[in-house]
Amino acid sequence: MNNVARHNGVPSQTKDHKTTSLWCTQAQQAFRSEPRNLTVRMGATAVLRCEVLRPSGTVQWVKDGLLLGPQRSLPGFPRYSMIGNPKRGQYHLQIEKAQLEDEEPYTCQVGQSESSQAIISSTAWVNVLIPPSEPYFEVDMETPWVAGKKYAVTCIAPDAKPVAEITLYKDGVELTGAESFTMSGSKDKLLNTHAEVTVTALSSDNGRQLACHAKNPALSRPAETTMTMSVYFPPQPPVIVGLQREEVKAGRTLALECVSHGGNPLASLQWTKNGEVLSKTWEADVVAQRSRSVLNLKITPADNQAVVCCESVNLVSLSPLSASRKITVLFEPAEVTLLGSFTAVEGQNLSLSCYATSSNPPVQIRWWLGYKELNSTVATMEEGDNSGMTTMSNMTHTVSRKEDGLKLTCEAFNKGTHFSKTRITTLDVYYPPQKVWLDTPPQDVPLRSGTTVRLICFSTGGNPTGTLTWFKNRTAVTDAPKQTSFDRGVARELVLVLTASDNMATYRCDATNKAKKTISAHTKLMVHFTAVSMKISTKQEELRRGQMLTLECQAGSSNPEANISWSLGGLRVQGVEQPPRSAQFGGVSLHSSLSLNLSSQYHNQRVICQAYSPVLEEGTNTFFKLNVLYPPEFSPEQPAQVQVVEDDMAAIPLLVSANPEEVSCIWLHHREKLVKEGDLRYHWSDENSLEIKNVTRKDAGVYKVNCTNDEGANQIAIMLDVQYAPRVKAETDPVVVNLGGTADLICVADANPIISDMFTWKWLGEGEVELGQETQEDESGLLTIHNVTRAHAGFYQCTANNGIASPATVNVQLLVQFEPELQKGSQWRKVASRGDGTSTAEVVCRAEGIPRVDFSWERNGVRMDFANPRYEERTVREGSFHTSTVRVVNVTAALDYAIFSCTARNSVGEDTLDIQLVSTNRPDPPSLFRQVGVSHDSVTLDWIPGFNGGLWQRFRVRYRWDKSAGFLYMDVFPPRVTTFTVTGLQPVTTYNFSVNALNEMGESDYADNNAVLTITTKERPDLGEVPTDDDSVSQSASGMPAYLTVVFTVTFGVLLVFNSLGCFFGLRWKKRRGQTGERGGNALDGTKSEKGGSSQSTVSNSNEYESRDKINATAQRTLLIDSGSETDSNVYESYAAESSHHYYPTGNYILPLSPLPEETRRLGVTHLPVDSQSHLYEDVRDGGLYQDILASPLPSSSSLFDHRLPHQKNEWRLPAYPQAAERVRDVRQPRRESDLPFEQQGELV
């Protein structure tokens, strides 16, 4: 309101000079008309006028300081609206259906604008006139008026504004002397008017009306209410009709009529007899102005000498009016009773009495025992009931056993009514029970409360049989079961569920009968019980934090003495115990007090007091719930810091507790109060917790929260940490390092948070390398690789992941510079050519190195001149691999059989290899011949091939055993494989194996200087065992019967033969096609065709030929294990399957013969012999068939192509010596045939 001025247009003095100048130069807004005080009737429509000239600010109405809003519909005030033409500045406030709540001060305000300051109108009050509610009388009208008495009549006109005026009328005549006063109404500002007048009731007022008129300015005509007066008077005395004689015989019914005339209201009648009301029923005849009542009275002996009276009375009678008659009744005795005991012990005198109740006249009494009248009697008469006479006859008689069971008769005779009545009974002789005993638990054995025990009482003898009754401490037990009978007496059982009250209680069983003699037996029980009651009390009414609370615990009686203890929140607390005191049921009571220093943690917790009995191992407890008042406190689990990802919704929980729970909290950020209207992104999910939508980094920081309740205030600071995903870049790319040096690859990230282990490095090349040491320095990730090898060269991926959104990555290239390394296996050291002057030879030198490798050549120590047309040099570079090929055209033995020296150089170093160009010849023998696996009927062998002599070579295995007549030979198939399985062997037999190589020129010596490999096969598996090897699957394992296996095997063999025949004819066609020069040239098969050159089908004129040692061009790296002499070279190169790496069988390959053509039987399965002349596999020159064999040095496919059924195959295992493990990589038995390379799966397509 500081910047708001009145409508005179004077600007606020707090505005700067520039703003004041602006207002002075533009038109000011002002009131054309202002609201004025208004008086309106309740329910009418009130309009407060407000008209503004040149309105430029927001116009609002203010009701008692509350802004109603700028909208014309005024939301939240359905009866309020702004009306008028806003274009003419009309903002009149219309109040529909005016109510008392609308009576408030109103002002019209116009807000400040750029061109004018704010203005406020004068205050206008709305005065609401409210008519009084319906007037009503306050007068005692529950009972009619009585003529002559004075009555106070009050009329009230409630809830009027202004005060109502009241006028009273009696039968249309205004009553004077009325006194009026006012009192507060049901609501504020409303008044009740009371008018009181005294009226004397007259008989003439009966049926006339009293009227009350109330009026005030809110009424156009007075409000009126009326009441009707009634006046009563007494009736005339009554008259009785219908009784002719005073003597009446009992049993007769009299019809008496009572009539009373007059009275207002008519009289009410009632009949009485000797002052006792008989009837209050009557009928009123308004026309005849009389009351009439008929009494039908059945006469009984009680009516003798009775006075029957009829009374008439109404509400105003001073005393009842009555008429009466006296009645004499003749009646017989109601009962004749025999008195005395009808049982007796034999020989005793029996005294009996016969009593006749009152009768008029009295009766005479006679006695009979059986059929004999007894005369020893004395009769007496006395006044009896109903004014009659009673008769008593006493008789004495000595009983004998013979009279037992006789009928004893007493007869009473009335002479006046000729009435006779008798009573008959039977005479008996009795004797009491003889013995009573109990079957109960021992008295000195304690019993546990809640235990069910049975007490049994037995009784024998007596006539009649005794009646058993149980008593507890002299009080009869009513809920005991009924007694039962047995052959000599009765028994009664009492079933007890023991309680505290049974401790040391006396239980007694009484046995009695009609002889009136009682004999008893009793016992006591010892009962252990827990405290019968528990109570916790305190003198403090309100509990507050920091106060010392004292609780008193009173434990009721227990036996034996219990231990009293306290616990709070599951923890034991120590109290102060008082000495025990004796208590009810023979136990002791305990008292303990506990003092607590109250804290907020105790709020709503239960303080438990327990009385525990160690003997019973049971306790009784009660609790006191703490209601601790404390100011707001923040939970220990309240997070001091909340982390959120940028652009997400931040939820800042506020874990606050207080008592009272009504807590008001204010949030501050950067010293500014947060309100919902201040930022639409703010939302309070519950009473206190804050949610911020689309959180940004600017929202980060400390949020202070101040919370208050009736007990005090508290505050807390919460840090909001806004996190965002990383962005990463390489500090240097590429990173160049020399072989053996240290490489540091660094990537830098921009992220929040920067966490430990945020950076990870990944090798993107093939194979596996040792990544080195990964470290992190703040926002930088460092990968340090020591002793860098060529295997480390390539791309590395740095990934930064702080757990926010997706990780960020960057690739860093590592270049490793190393000196050239030439490939120096046996296949690289020799090149063969016929030397007839028509052939062409290629001398290949391949090196790996970084940076660029350059080659130089020497022939017999002389640098070669490639200007000579017979020599052509070509260099091919693929990554770090560099290949230089010297092509020698028209090779002659005299000129070209020489040593070619290849030197590879780069900036790091150089390497040299001598390559000998020789004539085509038979192959060199294989080396490192060894055993790979052995079973009971097969042996798997492995070797390294030697130089092929310039021609395609194949291999042959020779073996024998001690009982064989000579050597057996088996050609290896496919021809180029160097791992082969010899099958069809005998179990537990020693064999000698050798292997050599063959080409078109001849065959080599046997491997390793004609060395012999001696191997003994294993034992055959037991018939009852389930084979564990993959090649000996039983019927149970395969789930297929043996005969089905044979059928499937024969079918498969026939299909395989047809397939092989197709391959055979296809191969012959390819041979003829190759001999005619149609086959394309290839550096691997020695058939490269050029202009002026010749084409050879079986001669390889290059030292770059296929063998088991392959170059992994994909990985572009080579691992040199050894580089020894030519004959003993052990070079193992890692390689992968490539499209150019295939096995090509030689053209004159002959199918291997079966070493054991005879039929064999084992395990009930017939093994069919294989025709050694059958062409199971033809020569295949399609390069795609064996391309995958290079990828995995598994057992040779020949081990899978053996002539056995599937269940006869045995797995082979790695040898135990390390050299074999070094040469045979990852040798394992495939789990299933589909896991093998294609060429080893047993089918050729």
From TrEMBL:
What Gene3D superfamilies does the database record attribute to this sequence? Immunoglobulins
Q: Which GO terms describe its cellular component?
A: cell-cell junction; plasma membrane
Record's protein name: Nephrin
Q: Where is the composition biased (Basic and acidic residues)?
A: 1223-1235
> Where's it found, cell-wise?
Membrane
Membrane topology per record: Single-pass type I membrane protein
Name the family the entry cites.
Answer: Belongs to the immunoglobulin superfamily.
- Annotated region (Disordered), positions in chain: 1075-1109, 1223-1245
Keywords, ordered alphabetically: Disulfide bond, Glycoprotein, Immunoglobulin domain, Membrane, Repeat, Signal, Transmembrane, Transmembrane helix
Name the InterPro entries on file.
CD80_C2-set, Cell_adhesion_signaling, FN3_dom, FN3_sf, Ig-like_dom, Ig-like_dom_sf, Ig-like_fold, Ig_I-set
Which species? Zoarces viviparus (Viviparous eelpout)
Q: Which GO terms describe its biological process?
A: cell-cell adhesion
Q: Where are the transmembrane segments?
A: 1042-1067
Supply the CDD domains for this chain: FN3, Ig
Taking every annotated instance into account, which residue ranges of this chain make up the domain Fibronectin type-III?
A: 925-1020
Keyword Transmembrane in annotation: yes
PANTHER family found in the cross-reference section? NEPHRIN
Q: Where is the Ig-like domain?
A: 11-121, 131-228, 237-328, 333-425, 433-520, 530-627, 726-811, 820-914
**Could you state a single Gene Ontology molecular function term?**
cell adhesion molecule binding
